[in-house]
Amino acid sequence: MRIVLAPNPVLREKSEPISLEEIKKFRSTAKQMAKLMYKNQGCGLAAPQVGIGKRLIVVDVTPPDEDGKVAEQNPTFFINPVITKMWGDKQLEDEGCLSIPGIQVPIERYNNVIIEALDLDGEPFTVEAEGFHARALQHEMDHLDGTTMFEHLNAIDRIEALKEYDIALKSGAKPGDTSIE
Ligand SMILES: [Zn+2]
């Protein structure tokens, strides 16, 4: 399993729901995704980012220690997640993406969200999140609908960001790199 980078077309496709019968089969996929996320110091990863067009994301916004590693891993797996509510003042903050290494892009997100999903046992659960947690969830949800950070930008900013990304890739940016000098 490896992280696919933009502009891989799988990142622009709408993902398919996972049926109840399929959930078991995706448990090990989910665990591998979490491993990959931690390895690349990400706080979220969506199945399309590993080339799988299914509605599955993993998120862990536990802040890393000084060495950049998360000591106590606490991943939450969301199958077929749905945002049922978004509210609060929209916040404009720089965002990174493991599939778009080397750059950060300012994106406006709601401060608060409620997400309903199934866990890896097929049980429904609800998460209410705010701030950075809410941002991470909105970012991963976007991936399930084929939306990357670039699609949030207006035409001019997008051209700039794509140029910057091109330079980052040419300088050898890898997933997890959010800034290249
Ligand atoms: Zn992303």
Question: How would you sum up this structure, described in words?
Answer:
The structure is a single chain. The chain has helices spanning 23-39, 131-144, 155-170, and strands spanning 44-46, 56-59, 76-87, 91-95, 105-109, 112-118, 124-130. It is an alpha+beta fold and 181 residues long. It has a domain at 9-88 and 111-151: Peptide Deformylase, CATH 3.90.45. The strands form 2 sheets. The protein has a 5-stranded antiparallel β-sheet. Strands 4-5 form a two-stranded antiparallel ribbon. A hairpin with a 5-residue loop joins strand 6 and strand 7. The longest helix is centred in the N-terminal third of the chain and has 17 residues, at 23-39. It is globular and about 45 Å long. The model has no long low-confidence stretch (mean pLDDT 94). Zinc ion (ZN) binds at residues 97-99, 139, 143.
Characteristics of this structure?
single chain, 181 residues, alpha+beta, Peptide Deformylase, two-stranded antiparallel ribbon, 3 helices, 7 strands, 24% strand, binds zinc ion
What is the CATH topology of the domain at 9-88 and 111-151? Peptide Deformylase
Number of helices: 3
- Indicate the proportion of strand residues: 15-25%
Number of strands: 7
| H/E topology pattern | HEEEEEEEHH
Q: Major sheet, described briefly?
A: 5 strands, antiparallel
Mean pLDDT rating:
94
Strand arrangement, major sheet: 1-2-3-6-7
Task: List each distinct ligand once.
Answer: zinc ion
Low-confidence stretches: none
Shape, per Cα inertia axes: globular
State the CATH architecture of the domain at 9-88 and 111-151. Alpha-Beta Complex
Supply Rg: 16 Å
Cα-to-Cα separation, first versus last residue: 29 Å
Oligomer: single chain
Helix share of residues? 25-40%
CATH superfamily of the domain at 9-88 and 111-151: Peptide deformylase
State the CATH class of the domain at 9-88 and 111-151: Alpha Beta
**From the helix content, strand content and strand pairing, which structural class follows?**
alpha+beta
